[in-house]
């Protein structure tokens, strides 16, 4: 079997020669400790087929334009999107329901299927594909059952006692219970084709499968089944032509669970993954049912379902020469092999036939599995699979035949290796690889999961190495970080194939980590693997700039870079950049005036040393501006470019007292200009001095990509959406942004002098003075200008200039 999980369209055939496949990987998820303990990590790994695309829906393969749905859905919701002939079935062992609906011809099938998947209560929705037969008889009345001694069944009969009766569910075309060689062997079953309790076989395939498992021996007629103390649960999902639907197959699996089956034999399959079928099989596995399926007859190494689902034992076919059959599927997903050519077995109407196909290899293995369960009914599905592999012919896993041709006698006398020192599969018992650094360990049995723990105290590079294992192991791992009571997947490690080392590195923040190691195909090996985890503390490098600090006479762009992981965060207001303060650097910073940049490299909460870059533009051309007076909100800023620039307080007698000297590079809010004085709030003023104090009156917010033009009118660069460029003055044609550079005034830009934040809900008025809407308290709104008691928010829409209602936030 193969570890897979995903959503995809589903098709099932009785081992037909199809060449189509479907698979889509599910995103890794955050899981709870309980989910890990219950084995979710074993069930939910990504398949190497994750990049295969889903095929188009094949309408000619779908029964009557139907889809099947699992969940609890409102019939009214289904009818509301135009679905017809809605049928609802209670699944035998599930609280969910199974719905079958028809998509009318006038609706697009795929689009409607997509709409169904979005309905409330839908767990899965898939096309109801037909199932088709493939196994064909070649000769009748061939008396030599060569395959029984080939798999050492007679020796097993003579050496062990099989006291416990075992139930094998045969999901197929039904079973001919009247056949003399099945007298008393067939239990109550169900016919999902005709929806009744009479699963009579009118095709022959299911009877042939059942005969290999359970035909009566020592009755002086016919053939002998593998196990004489077994009962067959007949589950009919295909009609007389061998045609069936995935709907009936899923119902059959649930029915087998309800009937307390010990083993389910599935001699059908396809290249299509079905989430509904996969879930049903996991449910059966979790309830202790051994699952066995035919690998397929397409001479292919593609994934074949249900054999390729994780909990299913996949069986390929061999011939009398002990070689893989020419028709058999092969590849990395095979678990074991069994004879599948010239298989003498039962047929309808008290008859017998000789058949070929993996359809008949699977029941050989099901029969031997039933012997194991009959000898020891406490065996779990994992131990049944382990015994089959340990007793098989190869001694180790190999492509195409897995662990080899099964051997009933050797499997029955197998002593399971001790698991006393096996690494725990649960986080609570995880091995502390962080303290031990390295370890040699084995994947001891099917579904073996080894969980390792390590702790990271600071930002660290973690190097994970897994090597030394044999060529029958395809190692992979999932790395989880504990977050509260949950575990978040941070890395899936599977870079190479069989026998190849798996090495990977991550940058990890402080916390507790769990490395979950397994084999991609749930194989095991007597050869140990080596695992090591090394940690190296990460040092973040400070950002560097393409421009050195200094004095310049022309505008330029600053490019920042860092030689370590993390984002560059910068500030322009003199504050220190941190994880919570500053702007993430994404594009070059245009420098048109004297500017101080502080920048740091930040990863998570870790911050590098601060880099500071000072750029002074003393000779830069600044446009001449004039500003109004008498405003209660700042309408500009003054930039201090020189030393010994004073902040003065105006006295009652119109004299001025020096309050303090301002620092070069400071930016002070301006509420108005009176002559050569900037009013900067209250009774405080700054005297304008050419080349020493420069006001900017707002910003040009770039709404769409637009050009920055140089003093000759040529394009210097393209400004990006979201940039907010300082404006020193503007007319109706252009913004002057310093250094002779301009931006065209048009619909690509929006002028703003700042923002206001209403302290309460206030009215926004239309230009003509009528109410337009209400601005909500606490929100920020652009301000385009302030005049005549109105704060213009753009296009003439305004709020009344009342300082008790509004807070002016920035400009």
Topology:
Blueprint: E1 31-32, H1 33-37, H2 40-43, E2 62-71, H3 75-80, E3 84-90, E4 97-102, H4 109-117, E5 122-131, E6 137-139, H5 147-150, H6 153-159, E7 166-172, E8 190-191, H7 205-214, E9 230-236, E10 244-245, H8 246-258, E11 263-266, H9 275-286, E12 290-294, E13 312-318, E14 336-339, E15 343-347, E16 351-355, H10 358-375, H11 381-391, H12 408-412, E17 431-432, H13 433-436, E18 438-441, E19 450-456, E20 460-467, E21 475-483, E22 486-493, E23 502-508, E24 511-519, E25 529-537, E26 544-545, E27 550-551, E28 556-558, E29 560-561, E30 567-571, E31 583-584, E32 589-591, E33 595-603, E34 606-607, E35 611-616, E36 636-640, E37 646-650, E38 656-661, E39 667-670, E40 672-674, E41 677-679, E42 684-687, E43 693-696, E44 698-702, E45 706-709, E46 715-719, E47 724-727, E48 729-730, E49 734-736, E50 742-744, E51 749-752, E52 754-758, E53 762-765, E54 771-775, E55 781-783, E56 785-787, E57 790-792, E58 798-800, E59 806-810
Parallel strand pairs: 7-9, 7-11, 8-9, 11-12, 12-13, 13-14, 17-19, 27-35
Antiparallel strand pairs: 1-22, 2-4, 2-5, 3-4, 5-10, 6-16, 15-16, 18-25, 19-24, 20-23, 20-25, 21-22, 21-24, 26-29, 28-32, 30-31, 30-33, 33-34, 33-35, 36-39, 36-43, 37-38, 37-42, 40-41, 41-42, 44-47, 44-51, 45-46, 45-50, 48-49, 49-50, 52-55, 52-59, 53-54, 56-57, 57-58
Task: Give a description of the structure.
This protein has 811 residues and is mostly beta strands. The protein has five domains: 276 residues, Peptidase S8/S53 domain (Rossmann fold), CATH 3.40.50; 107 residues, Jelly Rolls (Sandwich); 71 residues; 74 residues; 58 residues. It has 13 helices and 59 strands. The strands form 15 sheets. The chain has a seven-stranded parallel beta sheet with strand order 8-9-7-11-12-13-14, sandwiched between helices. Strand 41 and strand 42 form a beta hairpin. Helix 7 packs parallel to helix 10. It is elongated. The two termini are 65 Å apart.
């Amino acid at each position: 079997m193969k570890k897979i999980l995903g959503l995809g369209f589903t098709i099932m055939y009785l081992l037909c020669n199809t060449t189509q496949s479907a698979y889509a990987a599910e995103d890794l998820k955050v899981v709870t400790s309980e989910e890990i303990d219950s084995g979710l990590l074993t069930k939910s790994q990504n398949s190497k087929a994750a990049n295969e695309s889903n095929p188009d829906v094949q309408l000619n393969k779908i029964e009557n334009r139907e889809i099947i749905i699992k969940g609890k859905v409102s019939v009214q919701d289904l009818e509301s999107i135009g679905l017809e002939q809605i049928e609802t079935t209670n699944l035998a062992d599930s609280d969910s329901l199974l719905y079958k609906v028809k998509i009318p011809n006038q609706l697009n099938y795929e689009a409607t299927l997509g709409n169904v998947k979005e309905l409330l209560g839908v767990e899965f929705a898939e096309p109801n594909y037909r199932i088709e037969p493939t196994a064909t008889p070649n000769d009748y009345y061939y008396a030599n059952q060569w395959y029984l001694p080939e798999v050492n069944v007679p020796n097993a009969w003579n050496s062990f006692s099989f006291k416990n009766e075992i139930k094998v569910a045969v999901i197929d075309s039904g079973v001919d219970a009247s056949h003399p060689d099945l007298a008393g062997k067939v239990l109550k079953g169900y016919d999902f084709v005709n929806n009744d309790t009479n699963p009579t076989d009118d095709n022959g395939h299911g009877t042939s499968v059942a005969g290999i498992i359970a035909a009566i021996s020592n009755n002086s007629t016919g053939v002998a089944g593998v196990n004489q103390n077994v009962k067959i649960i007949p589950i009919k999902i295909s009609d007389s032509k061998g045609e069936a639907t995935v709907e009936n197959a899923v119902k059959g699996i649930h029915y087998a669970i309800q009937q307390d089956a010990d083993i389910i034999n599935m001699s059908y399959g396809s290249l299509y993954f079905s989430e509904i079928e996969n879930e049903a099989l996991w449910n059966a596995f979790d309830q202790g049912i051994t699952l066995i399926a035919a690998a397929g007859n397409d001479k292919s190494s593609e994934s074949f379902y249900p054999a390729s689902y994780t909990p299913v034992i996949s069986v390929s076919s061999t011939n009398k020469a002990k070689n893989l059959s020419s028709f058999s599927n092969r590849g990395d997903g095979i678990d074991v092999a069994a004879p599948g050519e010239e298989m003498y077995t039962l047929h309808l109407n008290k008859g017998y036939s000789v058949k070929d196909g993996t359809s008949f290899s699977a029941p050989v293995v099901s029969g031997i599995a039933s012997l194991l369960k009959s000898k020891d009914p406490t065996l779990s599905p994992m131990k049944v699979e382990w015994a089959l592999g340990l007793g098989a012919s190869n001694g180790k896993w190999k492509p195409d035949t897995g662990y080899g041709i099964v051997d009933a006698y050797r499997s029955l006398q197998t002593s399971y290796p001790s698991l006393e020192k096996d690494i725990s599969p649960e986080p609570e018992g995880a091995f502390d690889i962080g303290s031990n650094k390295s370890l040699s360990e084995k994947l001891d049995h099917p579904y073996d999961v080894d969980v390792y723990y390590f702790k990271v105290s600071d930002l660290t590079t973690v190097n994970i190495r897994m090597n030394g294992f044999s060529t029958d192991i395809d190692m992979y791992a999932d790395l989880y970080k504990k977050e509260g009571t949950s575990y978040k997947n941070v890395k899936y490690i599977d870079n190479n194939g069989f026998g190849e080392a798996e090495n990977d590195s991550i940058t990890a923040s402080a916390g507790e980590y769990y490395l979950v190691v397994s084999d991609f195909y749930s194989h095991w090996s007597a050869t140990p693997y080596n695992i090591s985890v090394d940690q190296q503390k990460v040092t973040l490098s400070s950002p560097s700039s393409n421009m050195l600090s200094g004095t310049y006479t022309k505008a330029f762009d600053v490019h920042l870079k860092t030689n370590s992981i993390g984002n560059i965060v910068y500030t322009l207001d003199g504050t220190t950049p941190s994880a919570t303060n500053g702007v993430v650097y994404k594009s070059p910073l245009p420098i048109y005036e004297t500017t101080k940049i502080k920048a740091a490299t930040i990863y998570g909460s870790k911050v590098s040393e601060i880099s500071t870059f000072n750029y002074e533009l003393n000779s830069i051309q600044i446009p001449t501006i004039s500003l109004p007076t008498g405003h209660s909100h700042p309408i500009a800023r003054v930039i201090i470019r020189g030393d010994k620039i004073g902040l003065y307080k105006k006295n009652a007698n119109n004299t001025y007292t020096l309050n303090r000297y301002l620092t070069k590079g400071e930016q002070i809010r301006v509420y108005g200009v009176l002559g050569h004085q900037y009013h900067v709030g209250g009774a405080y003023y700054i005297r304008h001095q050419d080349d020493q104090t420069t006001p900017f009156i707002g910003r040009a917010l770039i709404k769409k990509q637009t050009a920055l033009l140089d003093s000759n009118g040529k394009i210097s660069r393209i400004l990006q959406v979201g940039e907010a460029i300082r404006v020193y003055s503007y007319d109706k044609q252009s913004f002057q942004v310093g250094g002779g550079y301009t931006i065209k005034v048009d619909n690509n830009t929006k002028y703003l002098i700042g923002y206001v934040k209403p302290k309460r809900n206030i009215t926004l008025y239309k230009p003509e003075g009528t109410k337009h809407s209400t601005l909500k308290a606490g929100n920020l709104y652009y301000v385009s200008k302030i005049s005549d008691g109105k704060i213009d928010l753009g296009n003439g829409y305004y709020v009344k200039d009342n300082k008790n209602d509004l807070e002016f936030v920035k400009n």
